[in-house]
Structure prediction request, 189 residues.
Amino acid sequence: MSLLYGAEALNRKASADKNKPDEIIRSLEIRKGSIIVDIGAGGGYYSIRFAEETGLGGEVYAVDVNGDFLQHIDFQAKHNGLNNIKTVLVEEKAKGLPERGCDLIFFRNIYHHIHQPEAYFKEIKRFLKPNGRIAVIDYKKINGFSFINLIGHFVNEIDMIAVLENVGFTPIKSFDFLPKQSFNIFQLK
Prediction:
């Protein structure tokens, strides 16, 4: 699969009406000048949307393990005249982010890939401002046959909330408009 095809396929999926991207953006209540981290940025659909929402005074960190996807995001940002996106190539541990500087850290369909979520989210806490939030969207196990169930790319929402509470987050909002995914927002305790 070519870089462009892979990144654009991810962006088409993220932007599809059935995945309710506009409702997701509204639910995040992004303010101008915010600093947002998009973990697992993929093709960059949400990174671009966040950069538009935060405006010139804001910053967006597009974080991914795939350097080719990050090059695509850099290209898209330049193409759209957005100078407030920084791409960050990482392995599993987050780095290259401002300590205690982030308003929102966004995870979409990434949690199920994190091997040690307690350790990971303990580490993530250091990048948030005192009133910072994290948003976690991930697939739910659904009844019947599905590809997501088959490959195990889903999260038990109750277990995920328990992990985050255990490491110092408190759930502040939960949304149910995504039929195949859970969507929760947490804040530091």
Summary: The chain has a mean pLDDT of 90. The longest helix spans residues 3-15. The two ends are 43 Å apart (CA to CA). The beta strands are 35-39, 59-64, 85-89, 102-108, 128-139, 169-175, 181-188.
